[in-house]
Amino acid sequence: MSKIIISTDNAPAAIGTYSQAVKVGKTVYLSGQIPLVPATMALVEGDFKAQVHQVFKNLTAVCEAAGGSLQDIVKLNIYLTDLSHFASVNEVMAEYFQQPYPARAAIGISELPKGSLVEMDGIAELD
Fold first, then answer.
1. What is the 3-state secondary structure (H, E, C) of the chain?
2. Is the pTM of this model over 0.85?
3. Which domains does the chain possess?
4. Which is higher by pLDDT, 32 or 15?
């Protein structure tokens, strides 16, 4: 089975040696997204929730470039530099997903690229 590299200008360009996503068959492996604004490659301005919204916008753009949508995500990994933001992530996530929700992990870590407070990656399964 061949792999297809997914790339879109509607999400931040990769800042390292990786692709925005890789599609193998009907499965899309989404690289981590931090809250960079694609046009400026700078962190979105605002509070923690603004960062979470931007991450979901970036993931949405990559999913759409792969031929799917955010609703196709079956596994979502969330990395937080402060686990006290867990409830805020749930609030914002409820604006982007309907039930049944994807499987998910929320992991506390000490640091993220560019001083981001949140990063997410995932796996999507397309119809």
1. CCEEEECCCCCCCCCCCCCCEEEECCEEEEEEECCEECCCCEECCCCHHHHHHHHHHHHHHHHHHCCCCHHHEEEEEEEECCHHHHHHHHHHHHHHCCCCCCEEEEEECCCCHHHCCEEEEEEEECC
2. yes
3. 3-125 (3.30.1330.40)
4. 32
